[in-house]
Write a structure and sequence with these properties.
The protein is of the alpha/beta class. The protein contains ten helices and nine strands. The strands form three sheets. The protein has a five-stranded parallel β-sheet with strand order 2-1-6-5-7, with helices on both faces. It is elongated, with a radius of gyration of 23 Å. The protein starts with a strand and ends with a helix. Bound molecules: S-adenosyl-L-homocysteine.
């Protein structure tokens, strides 16, 4: 997979790619992330990427020409991308489902906005989709681009050492991950749940399923509507829901 990121702050992207799982995946050649400095696609002496907004108002707007040129240069050097993502607070919410869809593509481009935003003709005629990483406003698209790249990279086989770890992650099957513990077994008087140190693999598996379902039911019940649950989990969930209903009646 190849991801080209167009930005006016390439060093911000490079810093985010330099550590951990992402850095290792890139080093192993499992994905390629190329950072493109938007200023290299300007044609004036001052390498201008922004201009004042038509109609007045505060702030500056990213000009369309350098962004179009950048994407056209990427197309010439590495072929047409299957997706040109504009990161924007107006976009569709980015989620694990979106990450899985994008991770199956071979070439994508991410355009990072700055200032008040980007000339809207970029959204309409250059980007093929718009993604938001949440209902808050950041000063630029670099952190959202890194969030997307990180989530995609984890889904590329071989990037995360242990595939089971990705399969068990929160949202991968539509539910939250179970709680994790490590040594010491007792810390400041707080003990690790007995079952985890029992050595009974069947019991541990069941406890984890119950724990993940309980957590999801309590914190994010809306996720359960689309969750992929096995028979054991369906039974546990039914029992948890009945118990919850019982408790609610008990309070009446
Ligand atoms: N005036 C715009 C915000 C611009 S923020 C508005 O109110 O909608 C500058 C840039 O940061 C945006 O163009 C976008 O690329 C990026 N950005 C900010 N918040 C974001 C978010 N939640 N998700 C994705 N990109 C975001």
């Amino acid at each position: 997979m190849r991801i080209d990121i167009v930005t006016i702050f390439p060093r911000m992207i490079e810093a985010g790619l330099a550590e951990g799982i992402l850095a290792r995946g890139i080093q192993r050649g499992l994905l390629t992330v190329a950072t493109r400095d938007l200023r290299e696609f300007t044609d004036d002496r001052h390498r201008t990427v922004d201009d004042v907004p038509y109609g007045g108002g505060p702030g500056m707007v990213l000009k369309p020409e350098p962004l179009f040129r950048a994407v056209e240069a990427i197309e010439r050097s590495s072929g047409a991308p299957q997706s040109v993502v504009l990161v924007s607070p107006h976009g569709r919410p980015f989620s694990q489902v979106e990450a899985t869809r994008l991770a199956a593509l071979e070439r994508i481009v991410i355009l990072c906005g700055r200032y008040e935003g980007i000339d809207d003709r970029v959204r309409e005629h250059l980007a093929t989709e718009e993604l938001s990483i949440g209902d808050y406003v950041l000063s630029g698209g670099e952190l959202p681009a890194l969030v997307i790249v990180d989530a995609l990279a984890r889904l590329i086989p071989g990037v995360v050492g242990d595939e089971d770890s990705v399969a068990g992650d929160s949202f991968s099957r539509g539910i939250l991950d179970y709680a994790h513990f490590t040594r010491p077994a007792e810390f400041r008087g707080w003990k690790v749940p007995d079952v985890l140190v029992s050595g009974h693999h069947g019991e541990i598996r069941k406890w984890r399923k119950r724990q993940a379902l309980e957590l999801t039911l309590e914190r994010r019940p809306e996720l359960l509507a689309d969750a992929e649950l096995d028979m054991e989990e369906q039974d546990i969930l039914r029992e948890l829901m009945e118990r919850k209903k019982g408790a609610a009646h008990g309070r009446d």
